[in-house]
Amino acid sequence: MNIIEVTNLSHRFSDGTIGIEGITLSIQEGEFVVIAGRNGSGKTTFLRHLNGLLLPDTGAVRLGGVSVSRDIPRARQMVGMVFQDADSQIVGETVFDDVAFGPENLCLNECEVKRRVIKSLEVVDLIDIADQRPHLLSGGEKRRLAVAGILAMEPRILVFDEPFSDLDYPGVRQLLHQTLLLHKAGHTILIATHDLEKVIAHADRLLIISDGKVVMDNAPEMIIKDVEAFGVREPCASRLGMEIESWLN
Amino acid sequence: MAELTAFHFRPGTSLLHTLDVRFKILSFVLISISSFKAYPSALSVLTLVIFYAILISCLPFKSILKELRYFFVLLVFIFIVRAMFTSASPVVDFKESAVAWQGIYDGALICWRLLIVVLFGLIFVSTTRPSDIRTAVEWFLMPFPFIPGKRVATMMSLIMRFVPLILDQARETIDAQRSRGVENRKNPVYRLIKLIIPLMIRTFKKADKLAVAMEARCYSEKRTNKALLSAKSDWITLFGVICLSILLSIIDT
Amino acid sequence: MNTNHSIQLRKTAYASLFAALTAAGAYLSIPIGPVPIVLQNLFIFLAGLLLGSRMGLASVGVYLLAGACGFPVFAGGTGGIGRLLGPTGGYLFGYLPAVYIIGLITEKTGRHAAFDVIAMCCGSVVIYACGLSWLKLLTGMTLAKTLIVGMYPFILGDALKIAAAIPIAKALRPIMRIKD
Ligand SMILES: Nc1ncnc2c1ncn2[C@@H]1O[C@H](COP(=O)(O)OP(=O)(O)O)[C@@H](O)[C@H]1O
Ligand SMILES: [Mg+2]
């Protein structure tokens, strides 16, 4: 079943810049999709249409058959989004409060909020520092806190915008590991990046965006040799003609 | 700059940690009011109360005192100013020792009061979850229909989120400019401008991103209402504090 | 992104940001001359100039309320109602009318630099009026001494801050324009 259906999606900013143009695609429930493209190609603009942070000029995005602009709260609950700058995504004064922010916005009762917070913190392995103040966390922990914050809303689709920028090696591995667990648990995963190296081994599908248009859309091994034309570096192993290995091994 | 201040919540299970936050705020306000005009006899009683509160709250007091060192500098400064300026005769005139003693007495009194008020504040903040304080603020604002309590509460948590961000950002900007020799510029207005503009531009961008992230997490002012429950021990504590305040105002007269 | 709801949210974030800047301003200083220039009231000026009267008032109001509830937003990393009632509390309360007046003047005069200077001077007068009268009332000092302790050392710094606030406001106004 297609969980995301995008038809002829275009967005032009108020200053005239074209963000994205004529994107049509569909994504199945449980897919692991990597969206790549050079800086300014329109990845972030595209992702922001999935939960109604931006609304389309033409075209539409449908989640499970319902148009995003028809029911924005539903879209925001269904699509959890982790932003590039994890630090400015954290709202609460403690780890616990921050994760509780989303469920509280959904007006869930207090017990349910607590249950969800604890569950999410367990998934990202932050439960032991639930009372810590967020600005004392490391970069990797902040990113995981951001993930916990959206997991607590129980989304079906997880969207990561440049999740690996400014993470160290253990940080990347841990985030990757947890992302894969979430994928296994049935979440649909979308990752936008300009650096394929770290994730491509796990992706089912690779989308290349250039100048606001989807220029390639296929299984990674089919198109990985051709991505450099669009400002995305081909992973080392692939250049050397070897099989791409996961960063977890 | 991360461990900026001693004033933050420290988890625990003591009586002070479990009291209803509304009663704690009321007690805190009452005690602050009675200490700010108190004289040595009443201040001694309050000091004893503080020692008692510290004992039952199980806070790591030694490390807290260390974190309060900037506050002690402030106290010394206030003491010196007061000691020098209270006397009726001009600034420093130690020949009239009686007058000088009066100044020192006044200075000490003011510092003692301030110290007590700040220590009570410290105990309050250290034993109370910030989210509970916000819930209580919402509760106290309920009688004022024109003040949006939920928004005020959200703003409070945003303030506490932003302060460390701003200080980190400021330190980075200052260091970056130092390494490019800003200290050679003697014009203070120039330096103020060169510090504040980049600092504010960067923090505004952060605020923008935060607003978008809050939207993505369905921010609304219709949120979960937190229940506040008062127990018998809360009423007993409040009653005790009221008696204490009355007692304090009697001792001093 | 231009729905009412997001504009409201952005305003809330900006007002909180200014309150946080005011709180951080108590820690930030530029060492010039004998008295380091503390940036706290610079941010009060800027809140008036950039947020306007209503939002500025909300920002400072929540700042004071947060302080009164014990959050460490006052000088020296302290908080609590005791600080508001203490000797320097008058200045803190003075921020409230000051930011409103600055915002009002700058709104009514179309954000013109000369009027902005006048607005900030008025704001400073209000802050000192509140601060000094409370200080005098509480300590029983003579007026002359109150002025020596509570105003003269800071006048020069205030003048510098007013001079700096003008170009800062000019640079930032286009960035934080909230379309409504
Ligand atoms: N708020 C905005 N106003 C105007 N132009 C924008 C805005 N946001 C992004 N753009 C432009 O839209 C294009 C796509 O940007 P973006 O989606 O952020 O790219 P990516 O995330 O792939 O780096 C860029 O040319 C960018 O300059
Ligand atoms: Mg981007």
From TrEMBL, chain A:
GO molecular function: ATP binding; ATP hydrolysis activity; ATPase-coupled transmembrane transporter activity
Main localization (coarse): membrane
Cell compartment(s), UniProt: Cell membrane
Keyword Transmembrane helix: no
Alphabetical keyword list: ATP-binding, Cell membrane, Membrane, Nucleotide-binding, Translocase, Transport
The organism's place on the tree of life at top rank: Bacteria
Xref: Pfam families: ABC_tran
Domain ABC transporter as annotated: residue spans: 4-236
Cellular component, GO annotation: ATP-binding cassette (ABC) transporter complex
Family: Belongs to the ABC transporter superfamily.
Protein name per the record: ABC transporter ATP-binding protein
Organism the protein comes from: Candidatus Desulfaltia bathyphila
From TrEMBL, chain B:
Mode of membrane association: Multi-pass membrane protein
Main subcellular localisation: membrane
Cellular component annotations (GO), alphabetically ordered: plasma membrane
Keywords: Cell membrane, Membrane, Transmembrane, Transmembrane helix
InterPro entries in the record: ABC/ECF_trnsptr_transmembrane, ECF_transporter_component
Compartmental location: Membrane
Listed transmembrane segments: 38-59, 71-92, 104-125, 235-251
Domain of life: Bacteria
Name of the protein in its database record: Energy-coupling factor transporter transmembrane protein EcfT
Organism: Candidatus Desulfaltia bathyphila
TrEMBL record, chain C:
Location(s), subcellular: Cell membrane
Keywords tagged on the record: Cell membrane, Membrane, Transmembrane, Transmembrane helix, Transport
TM stretches of this protein: 12-30, 60-82, 88-106, 113-135, 147-169
GO terms assigned for molecular function: biotin transmembrane transporter activity
InterPro entries attached to this UniProt entry: BioY (IPR003784)
Claim: Membrane is one of the keywords in the record: yes
Pfam families in alphabetical order: BioY (PF02632)
Membrane topology designation: Multi-pass membrane protein
Recorded GO CC terms: plasma membrane
Cited Gene3D superfamilies: 1.10.1760.20
Record-stated family: Belongs to the BioY family.
Protein name listed in UniProt: Biotin transporter
High-level lineage: Bacteria, Pseudomonadati, Thermodesulfobacteriota, Desulfobacteria, Desulfobacterales
